[in-house]
C-alpha cells in the first residue's frame, strides 16, 4: 500500500495534524470546499505581517516588497506549480483570473463560437456570455449525461466539436463545484487541440488536493485559488498563461503599469493584500511538509469513500459523483430521492445532526447536497454522516 494511502487511514497522524488548528466548535463543517482553514502558525504569521505593514506603511512596500519580496514569493509559487515564474500573476481569487483570461482572449472573430457546460461556475458562464455579446460570437451550451463516465464526457465533447466547427474557445472546470466531478482534463484538451479549440481551465477546487502537470495536460490558460486546499489567507489566487501563448491574452483593459510581455499586465493594477502574500512562504512550507496534494488528496478521498461506500446502494439516496477514481476527489454530492426539497434536507442535517453541508443547483441532473470533508475531518465525523443519511433517507 503506498505511503500516502496508508497514512490517509492513520487517524492518530491526522489528529496530530488537526492539533495545528484551533478547536472547531459545532456544527461539524462538511462544506470545506468554500475556503480552507489556516493553521494556527499561519494565522500568527498573517497577524504579524498585518502589524508590520501597518507600522512600516509604504516604506517597506515601496523599498522592498514591490522590488524583491513579491517576486521571490511568485517564484516559490511557480516552483510549487512546476512552471516558470513568468507564467504566473497573482489575483484575489480564481474568478478574477478567469474573468481576465476570458475578456482579454483576443483570437475570436465575429461568427466564432465559444463553449460552456452545465457544470461550469456561474461567473464563468456569465463571463462567456458577456464575451459573446461584446465580440459577436455565439455561446454553445451543453449538458453532460448523468451519471457521468470517463467515456461519456469525452464523447460529449467529441460530438460537440464535430457538430460546431466554428468553436474556438471553451471553458473547462477541473473539479466541478456542483458535484465534485473531476473532469478528464488531459483527454479533453487533446480532443480540443485536434479541433483547434483553446481551453480556459477553472482550477479553483483542484489545486492542493489533486496532483497535476499543466504542460502535460495541454493547458495554456488557467485560474486558481490559494485559499481552498493550500491553506492560505483569503483574497489570494493567480492566473496562469503558458509563456508561448501570452500574446493571445491582451493586457487587462489596456493596463500599462507593466510591459505587454509581462503577464502581470493581464491583471488589474491595484494594491493587493500584502500581508496575505507575505504569509505564502509559510503556507507553502506547511503544505509541502504534510506531503502536498498527494497526501491531502489521499486523505480527502479516503474520508469521501467512507461515507459513499456506506450509502451508495441504499434506497432513497443517490450519490451524484461516480466512483471511477479518475473522476472524483474529496468533494462529492448526493441527494435524497424521496424528498423533493434538498435545501430542507440540508437544514435537517444541520439542525438534527449538527452537520453543515451546502445545496448546489444549476446542474442538468438536478439539485444536490455537496459534502466536502476537510483536512481536520475525522473518520468518526464520516460515521455520523453515514448514520444521518441512513436515518433521513
UniProtKB/TrEMBL annotation:
Transferase is among the record's keywords: yes
Entry-linked SUPFAM superfamilies: PLP-dependent transferases (SSF53383)
Highest taxon of source: Bacteria
InterPro entries listed in its UniProt record: Aminotrans_V_dom (IPR000192), PyrdxlP-dep_Trfase (IPR015424), PyrdxlP-dep_Trfase_major (IPR015421), PyrdxlP-dep_Trfase_small (IPR015422)
Spans through the membrane: none
One annotated GO molecular function: transaminase activity
Top-level taxonomy: Bacteria, Pseudomonadati, Pseudomonadota, Gammaproteobacteria, Pseudomonadales
Domain Aminotransferase class V: 42-368
Species name: Pseudomonas shahriarae
Protein name: Aminotransferase class V-fold PLP-dependent enzyme
Keywords: Aminotransferase, Pyridoxal phosphate, Transferase
Amino acid at each position: 500500500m503506498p505511503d500516502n494511502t496508508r497514512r490517509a487511514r492513520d487517524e492518530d497522524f491526522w489528529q496530530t495534524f488537526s492539533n495545528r488548528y484551533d478547536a472547531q466548535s459545532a456544527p461539524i463543517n462538511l462544506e470545506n470546499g468554500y475556503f480552507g482553514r489556516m493553521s494556527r502558525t499561519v494565522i500568527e504569521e498573517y497577524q504579524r505581517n498585518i502589524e508590520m505593514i501597518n507600522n512600516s506603511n509604504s516604506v517597506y512596500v515601496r523599498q522592498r516588497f514591490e522590488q524583491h519580496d513579491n517576486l521571490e514569493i511568485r517564484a516559490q509559487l511557480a516552483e510549487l506549480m512546476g512552471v516558470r515564474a513568468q507564467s504566473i500573476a497573482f489575483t484575489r481569487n480564481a474568478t478574477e483570473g478567469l474573468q481576465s483570461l476570458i475578456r482579454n482572449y483576443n483570437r475570436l472573430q465575429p461568427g466564432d463560437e465559444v463553449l460552456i457546460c452545465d457544470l461550469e461556475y456561474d461567473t464563468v458562464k456569465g463571463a462567456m456570455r458577456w464575451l459573446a455579446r461584446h465580440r459577436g460570437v455565439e455561446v454553445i451550451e451543453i449538458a453532460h449525461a448523468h451519471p457521468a463516465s470517463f467515456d461519456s464526457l469525452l464523447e460529449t465533447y467529441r460530438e460537440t466539436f464535430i457538430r460546431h466547427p466554428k468553436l474556438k474557445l471553451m471553458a473547462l472546470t477541473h473539479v466541478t463545484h456542483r458535484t465534485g466531478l473531476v473532469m478528464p482534463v488531459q483527454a479533453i484538451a487533446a480532443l480540443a487541440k485536434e479541433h483547434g479549440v483553446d481551453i480556459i481551465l477553472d482550477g479553483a477546487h483542484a489545486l492542493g488536493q489533486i496532483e497535476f502537470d499543466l504542460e502535460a495536460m495541454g493547458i495554456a490558460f488557467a485560474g486558481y485559488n490559494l485559499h481552498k486546499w493550500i491553506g492560505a489567507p483569503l483574497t489570494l489566487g493567480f492566473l496562469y498563461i503558458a509563456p508561448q501563448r501570452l500574446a493571445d491574452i491582451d493586457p487587462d483593459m489596456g493596463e500599462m503599469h507593466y510591459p505587454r510581455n509581462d503577464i502581470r499586465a493581464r491583471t488589474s493594477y491595484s494594491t493587493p493584500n500584502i500581508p496575505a502574500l507575505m504569509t505564502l512562504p509559510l503556507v507553502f512550507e506547511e503544505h509541502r511538509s504534510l506531503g502536498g496534494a498527494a497526501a491531502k488528496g489521499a486523505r480527502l478521498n479516503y474520508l469521501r469513500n467512507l461515507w459513499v461506500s456506506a450509502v451508495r446502494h441504499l434506497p432513497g439516496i443517490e450519490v451524484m459523483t461516480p466512483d471511477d477514481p479518475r473522476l472524483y476527489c474529496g468533494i462529492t454530492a448526493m441527494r435524497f430521492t424521496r424528498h423533493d426539497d434538498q435545501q430542507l434536507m440540508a437544514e435537517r442535517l444541520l439542525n438534527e445532526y449538527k452537520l453543515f453541508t451546502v445545496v448546489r443547483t444549476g446542474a442538468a441532473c438536478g439539485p444536490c447536497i455537496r459534502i466536502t470533508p476537510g483536512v481536520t475531518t475525522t473518520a468518526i465525523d464520516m460515521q455520523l454522516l453515514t448514520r444521518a443519511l441512513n436515518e433521513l433517507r
